[in-house]
Design brief:
Layout: H1 6-12, H2 31-48, H3 54-62, H4 73-84, E1 87-91, H5 97-105, E2 108-112, H6 129-140, H7 143-163, H8 166-178, E3 181-184, E4 187-190, H9 193-196, H10 199-207, E5 212-215, H11 218-222, E6 234-238, H12 241-248, H13 253-259, E7 276-278
Parallel strand pairs: 1-2, 3-6, 5-6
Antiparallel strand pairs: 3-4, 5-7
Helix pairs in contact: 3-6, 5-7, 7-8, 7-12
The structure holds phenylalanine (PHE) and cobalt (II) ion.
Amino acid sequence: MQLQSFDQLKAKHPEIRADFTIDQHWERYGDGEHAMWRTLYERQAQVLKGRACEEFLDGLVKCRLVADRIPDFERLSDDLERITGWRVVAVPSLVPDDIFFDHLANRRFPAGQFIRKPEEIDYIEEPDVFHDVFGHVPMLAHPVFADYMEAYGKGGQRALKQFGALKNLARLYWYTVEFGLIEKPEGLRIYGSGIVSSHAESMYSVESPSPNRIYFDLERVMRTDYRIDDFQESYFVISSFEDLFAETYKDFAALYARLKTGPAYKPGDVLSTDRVHTHGTHTYVGGSHQAA
Ligand code: PHE
Ligand code: CO
């Protein structure tokens, strides 16, 4: 994953603005691209029944995200804005950290505008419109999660400018927003967007005996490295979105100071201090590139 320079992006997207937003150009999607959305959507709708949390599934309905076609961001944003005040803006791909945080802090979710090619159906390196919209937008329709994402954006600005703690904060995003699980009376459920947009990981994350599933602890998460190119070796389990928000909506200054020293953990570690839901067998052998 290489961050492209603004000039490189401008050559491809002449209309690009200083905040890295571009026009979605919805009218330019071809039938094959809409068909790819449909294939991915239908496959995930199947696998997510009984696996994704109800907040995610409700969000799909509330935002009127359907299989038919790639959503038009303007239409989608008008719905989402009425629900929680968020909008979706198109970006070419990954954007610089300060730009990303500024969007989140202002309740704008930057979403990739392109869709993966047929040969990338199970794995792409950069987030496309399916991951960004199907994966992220439904949770933005949940009031508490919507607040969490805005707070994260503001926290990102602080982490970047004042604390040099981006690495720690990025781990929190990874293990919650992207790969989070939640414990419900009916069992473990998925809310992380990196899981809900991946067919294989939707099953693996909740059913495989291989990974650890560890109850969420803020400092523990912020000390834990993650893998970006394969299934996770550990998932962190929250008890509710209210709880996650309460845990993170405190001043991190003292925590960041503590994090400057002390251990960092590997993705598969289990600590004696962990509250463990599942101690993984680690029988899954990585390298099959099926994540995201
Ligand atoms: N509480 C964090 C801080 O003081 C900000 C934050 C909130 C980060 C919610 C992540 C999620 O910087
Ligand atoms: Co994502």
